[in-house]
Amino acid sequence: MAKQAGEDNPNHLFLNSAIGFLGVLFVLLIAALGSRMIYPRVVTERATVDPALVSNVIQLEVLNGCGIPGIATRFTDSLREYGFDVVETGNFDHFNVEQSFVISRSGRMENARRVAKAIGIPEQNVIREESPDFFLDVTLIIGSDFESLNL
Questions:
Q1: pLDDT tens per residue, range 115-150
Q2: pTM score
Q3: CA of 126: how far to CAs of 36, 49, 63, 81, 103, in Å?
Q4: Helices 71-82 and 109-119 meet at what angle, rounded to 10?
Q5: Which CATH code fits 47-148?
Q6: Using CA atoms, how far apart are residues 32 and 59, in angstroms rounded to an integer?
Q7: pLDDT greater at residue 61 or residue 33
Q8: Residue 146: CA atoms inside 13 Å, Cβ hemisphere, count?
């Protein structure tokens, strides 16, 4: 049997694989576009509850003060749904914080109060601690009372 010209050429295998991959990717993109047109993005009910809670300019950090793994990330997701700009998450310097609290870093207490109101922290747990070392507006420390807060 005679081989046809270029039948075993490795370049053809690579080219055919690339065309196949791009074809599958194209089909997936068309399907995603079609599903977005049929099922448009629904705005979450949480973000439409109270427009006064939504802000695009309040930058904050969320710190875990209760020691529950992943709790700062859970609150970060909720705060971002409200429209707050969470720029950092991490652990507080200890894990025995009983009541969650909010610290105003920029001196603008209204920003701290808006964050507190959004997740259900009482106003008496909002404090002011200005520091030129901080380049954010608010710090939120999640305590052991996290289950009573709005997630």
A1: 999 999 999 999 999 877 778 899 999 999 999 998
A2: 0.63
A3: 41, 22, 15, 21, 6
A4: 110
A5: 3.30.70.2390
A6: 32
A7: 61
A8: 25
Cβ pair 118, 80 in contact under 8 A: no
If pLDDT is split at 50, 70 and 90, which confidence band does 83 have?
Answer: confident
Which two structure tokens, joined as six digits, stand for 23?
């074809």
Per residue, the 3-state secondary structure of the chain, as one string, reads: CCCCCCCCCHHHHHHHHHHHHHHHHHHHHHHHHHHHHHCCCCCCCHHHCCHHHCCCCCEEEEEECCCCCCHHHHHHHHHHHHCCEEEEEEECCCCCCCCCEEEECCCCHHHHHHHHHHHCCCHHHEEECCCCCCCCCEEEEECCCHHHCCC
Distances (CA, A) of 89 to 33, 85, 139: 33, 11, 10
